[in-house]
Amino acid sequence: MSDLIIETRGLNYYFGTQKVVDDLSLKVKKGSIYGFLGPNGAGKTTSIKILLNLLKSPKDTVFLFGKEINSNRIASLKRLGALVEQPAIYAHMTGRENLVNRCMLLNIDKAKSTDLLELVGLSDAANKKAGKYSLGMKQRLGIALALLSDPELLLLDEPTNGLDPNGIIEIRNLMIDLASKHGKTILVSSHLLSEIERIASHVGIINKGKLLFQGTINELHDLSKPTLEIEVQNAAQAASLLTENGYELIATTENKISLLFKSAEENGKINTLLVQNGFIVTSIYQIRKDLEHLFLDITKNN
Amino acid sequence: MRSLLISLQSEFYKSRKTLAFWAAILLPVVICGLITFGFYTNSEKILKMNYPGMVLWMNYSGGALGVMGMLILPFYVIFMAFSVNNIEHKNDTWKTLFAQPLNKLSIYAAKYLYAVLLIFCCLFLFASLTYLFGNLLQVLVKGLKFNEYSPIEILSKLYLKLFLSSLGILSVQFIISLIWSDFLKPMGIGFIGIIMGIILYTKGWEYAYTVPYSHPSMALTMAKGKGTPEIFTQEIYTSLIYAVVLFTVGYFIVARKSVK
After folding, report:
1. How high is the ipTM of this complex?
2. Among A48, A50, A93, the residue to mutate for chain B (most B Cβ within 10 A)
3. What is the assigned CATH class of domain A4-222?
4. Which parts pass through the membrane (chain B) (predicted)?
């Protein structure tokens, strides 16, 4: 219990009669980078808004830092920083003024704004109106705003949206740094698994409000069972031979057969069987389904 | 209380470069300046009238008060209510504002209070500038009798009354501007409200005091009686009741609204 920074217990949330969060039980450990994955409209932003108490959760379903959120709203919010949807920035104020304004609200030293501007690479644009910032710059300013109070927990909703490849790498490295060197806990949402798998230690996959998977990134990898691909001439006949010999096939095309990988010895036996029966095997290899496909499979099947 | 002060300070910081803030200063400066300029250029005619001090002050301050009560104040209040809320609508910042570790009521109350304060400052400036510019005219134009009468009491009471009478409109418009993020609805409804308020009042409808948009005109006209005006009249009480009730309603709206 004590090392869980975020915990939701069977959380349900409705917009009118539509259930948008369905029995969600998130468990985010201290110091982890939790990738919160799901297609658009899966309920990620709603869940983050619930964690920020912007949407009111039923009693005793959401716990931040081990405490129930509704009765500890201000104390919990003091310890977290957030970036929800597009960064909320006052367009008529400069980047620095946006940060100074937040310093006021958080009652922290205004000089902190200079450090944060430097951290997110906006020092040169500090005195430019935020409305004139590019999407990437706005996103950086949003991240700076979230980091301003040096929070223990960061909730970042699609933080690399609109960033160029360099910006994405910088933010990614920043998140890794924050978690590994400064012990921050980060919940980062995205609809791109490729982005999350590079930084996250833990993953939660949500679709239609339901949590379909939750665990470490390695546990997610383990879900994807490797297959054996055999390229062979006369694949149809080869396939029937294998079936007759008790092998279960996944798919057969004109010159390729796919079946579940069992072991290296088993591969050898299959190869021998085919060659002894006069088939010309041109290639035999093992493939592991990449996470992107796995993610699609998990979300599609639900 | 600390939350309220912090939020109020932030409201000032956010809006200090906007028209709503500067209008509170520019409106009185420009209007009082123009009226004073008019008096100065027409000083010969005015001297011929040989008004006694009190009438001269009434004549002079009536220029600003009349325009303010009927049109400018209601419009300014409508614009102010719109502007304070629009700063969050326009930038989609309600959600961030309510995700700060601050009491929700303080955030909302600070916004309302900030609008009230700006209106107060605007009217305070009107009263002060009327007094200062009147005395300036006295120095510039020999023979005027501004020095025969001290208008401080009556000016303070009239502007205080005008201020209290504007709180009803502010509260209605504040809620409208909270609910709708666009420019046309609050401004359109406000505009219709003002016209309706003026018509209802000038036609002498018995229950005009129930319509907040009539309050500023009523507050002023009732004061045209003899002696110093009474501050707490029927329309002022109604205006204050509107303010208290709608302020409370607004809080519940904002608490729900911020979540989307």
Report:
1. 0.87
2. A93
3. alpha beta
4. 20-40, 60-82, 112-138, 158-180, 187-205, 236-254
